[in-house]
Amino acid sequence: MEHVQIPDPLVEHGFSASVDHMFDRAVQFLNLSPGLEQKIRVCNATYTVRFGVRLRGGIETFTGYRSVHSEHMEPVKGGIRYSLDVNRDEVEALASLMTYKCALVEAPFGGSKGGLCIDPRQYSEEELERITRRFAYELAKRDLIHPSQNVPAPDMGTGEREMAWIADQYARMNTTDINAQACVTGKPVSAGGIEGRVEATGRGVQYGLREFFRHPEDVARAGLQGSLDGKRVIVQGLGNVGYHAAKFLSEEDGAKIIAILEHDGGLFSESGLDVEAVRQWILQHGGVTGFPDALYVENAPVLLEEDCEILIPAALEGVINQHNAARIKAPLIIEAANGPITFHANEVLRAKGTVIIPDLYANAGGVTVSYFEWVKNLSHIKFGRMQRRQEEARHQLVVDELERLSKAIGTPWELSADFKSRYLRGADELELVRSGLDDTMRSAYQSIRALWHVRPDIGDLRTAAYCVSIERIADSYRSKGL
Ligand SMILES: NC(=O)c1ccc[n+]([C@@H]2O[C@H](COP(=O)([O-])OP(=O)(O)OC[C@H]3O[C@@H](n4cnc5c(N)ncnc54)[C@H](O)[C@@H]3O)[C@@H](O)[C@H]2O)c1
């Protein structure tokens, strides 16, 4: 029994509209008052800023945004994107996805997102630093960058470098704020970041897929069987998220990356691509063109329609849409990017029985590890130091007891030095981050699949994920008030 009005394809243009339609489908299954539904759905505020920077003997004016979707928990959290396509609708859609994503993985944040209309490839590092610092200044003076109010992170076109500039800019403006480092996450480890943040979103995609493949009934719903080993995978976008996901899946799970789509074309190899070699080629040449060990396809988007078991869009939104959805052959799609499938395409794929692991779950690894980084910054203690001490103390007790028992039974023996050193060593920061991420991805998937199986009328993992998330946000409003 579904009451969702399928919008006219000719009027479904916006990214926000797509996210809202997905929200609307989910709330039908929840018992919320219309007022509360509306409160959760709408974007609270979007700030637009235009600022000038002296560059190359003249003045250049830039437009940037920071949108806050929901403050049911603070700080609000979400990346900053650098791209010429950035616009108000896009940041609002991305901010709402952040709200739902944080609730799903129980990261205690509201949702936000920012963007700057810029093609970063057109500027030198020095110019980018000046532009970034000025943008950060504009946002920070309105508390849109702030450790307890609004904490950005990397997104398309930005990374550790930009986050370090933002953190430094904020610290200079707030010299007495002892928590200044927590104003942004995704910083380099040497500047208050955390091990494992750079890989986190791609790592989360891998952990999410592993969890999916641990459930044969779920795998069967996609018409597949077995494990990730040998599965043919197509990846769109070999940036931060796509590269790490493709690398880990091929190196650690035996998946075969048969196609990579980039901004300047695509690569195809039935026997599998060497992800590291392609990445190095892109870093040196700015794109995939000319890569020697694969078939080059100029019209890359057609590769989305190739035969494979798993499709991983990890670049832009709206790439699977009303024009190509019917031709997508992959039985399983994991949305590493935000919003890669429009609402219409989602309808077509649902009807075909394609299983979609949705963005709000699939790429939540980034915000999960950002949360660890934020906590590390606020606690002013190396992440895991307390756990490590406790772990070492517990392990020492076991070793002592084993040695005491061996003497007591009169057959003295000694633990090898190798065993002792490995056993006594507490987990390091990277291990703790990875295990925390794995745990988060596993438990979030359990909560979604439980609903997917118990309520067949819900129909798909995306709707189930929205239901879990919206219900948690509603609970927060119910307990705390508006
Ligand atoms: N970085 C994170 O931690 C993070 C977290 C959650 C979600 N995401 C989402 O993941 C997606 C990718 O983000 P990222 O951080 O990897 O960005 P990125 O800038 O590191 O990489 C994006 C890649 O996509 C490629 N690309 C651009 N246009 C393309 C096109 N038309 N066709 C194919 N490839 C194209 C770029 O060349 C680049 O290699 C975005 O949707 C982002 O919102 C990122």
UniProtKB/TrEMBL annotation:
Active-site residues from the entry: 113
Site (Important for catalysis): 155
CDD domains named in the record: NAD_bind_1_Glu_DH (cd01076)
Residues reported in the UniProt entry to bind NAD(+): 201, 240
Keywords on record: NAD, Nucleotide-binding, Oxidoreductase
GO terms (BP aspect): L-glutamate catabolic process
InterPro entries from the UniProt entry: Aminoacid_DH-like_N_sf, Glu/Leu/Phe/Val/Trp_DH, Glu/Leu/Phe/Val/Trp_DH_C, Glu/Leu/Phe/Val/Trp_DH_dimer, Glu_DH, NAD(P)-bd_dom_sf, NAD_bind_Glu_DH
Entry-linked Pfam families: ELFV_dehydrog, ELFV_dehydrog_N
Domain Glutamate/phenylalanine/leucine/valine/L-tryptophan dehydrogenase C-terminal, residue spans: 194-481
Molecular function via GO: glutamate dehydrogenase (NAD+) activity; nucleotide binding
Binding site for substrate: 77, 101, 370
SMART domains: ELFV_dehydrog (SM00839)
Transmembrane regions listed in the UniProt entry: none
Superkingdom of this protein's organism: Bacteria
Family: Belongs to the Glu/Leu/Phe/Val dehydrogenases family.
Protein name: Glutamate dehydrogenase
Organism from which the protein derives: Shimia aestuarii
